[in-house]
What we know:
The structure is a homodimer. By secondary structure, chain A is an alpha/beta fold. The first copy, chain A, is 51% helix and 17% strand. In chain A, the strands form 3 sheets. A 6-stranded parallel β-sheet of chain A has the order 1-8-5-4-2-3, sandwiched between helices. The longest helix of chain A has 21 residues, at 203-223. Chain A is globular. The A-B interface holds A 1, 3-4, 29-30, 71, 75, 78-79, 82-83, 85, 87-90, 109-114, 135-137, 140-141, 143, 145-150, 226, 315-320 and B 1, 3-4, 29-30, 71, 75, 78-79, 82-83, 85, 87-90, 109-114, 135, 137, 140-141, 143, 145-150, 226, 315-320.
Amino acid sequence: MADQFSQQIIFTNSVGDAVEAWVAEARPSKLFVIADSNTARLCLPALAGESASVAAATHIVVPAGENHKNLATLASIWDSLCSNGATRNSAVINLGGGVVTDMGGFAAATFKRGIRFINIPTTLLAAVDAAVGGKTGIDFNGFKNEIGAFCSADAVVISTRFFPTLPRQELLSGYAEMLKHSLLKGGDAYNRLTAKAPEQFSQEELLELLRESVMVKKAVVEEDPTEKGLRKSLNLGHTAGHAFESWALECGRPVAHGYAVAWGLVVDLVLSHLKLGFPSAMLRNVAGLVEELYGRLPLECKHYPALLEYMRHDKKNAGDGTIAFTLLKAPGEVDVNCTATPEEITAALDIFRDLLHI
Amino acid sequence: MADQFSQQIIFTNSVGDAVEAWVAEARPSKLFVIADSNTARLCLPALAGESASVAAATHIVVPAGENHKNLATLASIWDSLCSNGATRNSAVINLGGGVVTDMGGFAAATFKRGIRFINIPTTLLAAVDAAVGGKTGIDFNGFKNEIGAFCSADAVVISTRFFPTLPRQELLSGYAEMLKHSLLKGGDAYNRLTAKAPEQFSQEELLELLRESVMVKKAVVEEDPTEKGLRKSLNLGHTAGHAFESWALECGRPVAHGYAVAWGLVVDLVLSHLKLGFPSAMLRNVAGLVEELYGRLPLECKHYPALLEYMRHDKKNAGDGTIAFTLLKAPGEVDVNCTATPEEITAALDIFRDLLHI
């Protein structure tokens, strides 16, 4: 298993050099770059300037946005690989945010039963989350990542160099996952991460915080690549978070993934407090930070049934009617096998709204 | 690797009991049976009569035939799983020939990033080939198995009980893969298998020959699950065979997979003779048997370019312009890393037509 799931993670701002080194070793018969319409414009030209392999590769550009992370776009990628002569010995570079790394990874994982790929995340969120750990997939029938596979990138090249082009909202979206990792790690991690407002860290400070954060995820994934147990810890904040995200999308007012996770983190810490005695001072601290950075989700009681319905559809559930959660006894002390009843979740949503002054 | 790819193969005609035993151990939250319109009519009722779990399962019936092994049918399976509340802890039983086990296996392998499945092959071909070994997938853009994944069934239940409903052509189709396995195994295997005409074996004799044949494949797959080396031996007959199959389909005169493999076997043995000195007496023996059982493919010189084009698209090629073949020095002595030039293949196709009196 270690063989298949341990992946090389390279932290560097010399991204072109990292790509050339990988290509020299992997020697793909043909190289493809998958980018979206944003990264094709904002990131690909610079990278092509630094890497002859990237410049010479076949570029597959997909429309940007989560609403294009679907079967139609996936089929168009397969089609481009097919019609441009990709073989089993070809390779793919995914250059983009989580949509590109998830979907491009799944396309590569399933083309001719799997060709090699590397991820170059261009957003903080993708760097800290989607690009690492081998989860690939697309949304289907309105459910996030409903179709996919566990398949690790050959390598992930993590840099902060593409972040200056990101809107603040994108930066905050990634920061929410870093908050999650710091709570999973415990110790001083949360304090280090929240010592300054996220946009006040220098690029070097951020790369260092990123390394610490990614290593939390990497360690968990290597222990449990296919989410039989420990990996579920990474779902902290995600049961409620995914429900918020799907619900907001359905309402026609989509929210960024990281925002949904930030709010979901507060819900999960409320449940952690109610069920496992997570310290209330820490809960209030996190809730205050989330309100300050992410604002308020316009949630009312009448929306609860829809949210519960989304939670029931969560992949993490056992199928026995309960809803699965990952909760914390305290920072660094995780329980991955918690469940909550609809009544408990309703109570937690009420407290969540109180804490965030919704 | 062994963990992920070794699979339980159960040889029994008490298929219902085998399913019940598996369900008792696996305890899926929900059970689905994927069948095609033929097996839903001819095999599912009897099996449901023997297995309460099968009777109570959600049945997903797809249209029969290779031309439905495509993205649209796959999406309809995902949709059925989704809308009938499948969870990560659900499981799928694939009841059918290779189309059902390949496509149902891929649907399960990718639904919520992978749920468990077992295969119950209902054709000799699926029993001896598709159902065992973890290759799943669909055809795409006219290319066979262009999209897919390596993912082993939890268990494969192999019986001869569904074969009496098979047309003779279906039986012969599976027999071609058994011929291939016997040539790969060497020793007396080919003689045992060809001691009688295939339809003259009793059900018990056939189950025993089937066990011997499947074990050849199982041993190879466990050694090399993702086809880095040894597994390529199973491609004997398949480079030319797949080209025959794709070409015949394109011409609007589709041929059964096993027929294409039988003819492809002769082409590959001709190349084996030309390049590795495979004994000509044995080549003539196999060619005579193939002509007798499978008849003649209406192939003319003018068709060669189309066949070569299909061979160039084969997944097995390295992408350097050569065409990859698995060849034999003699029965039981395999070389998986052969290549042939278009000129050599053209010569082999000429000899193939001579041998089969085309």
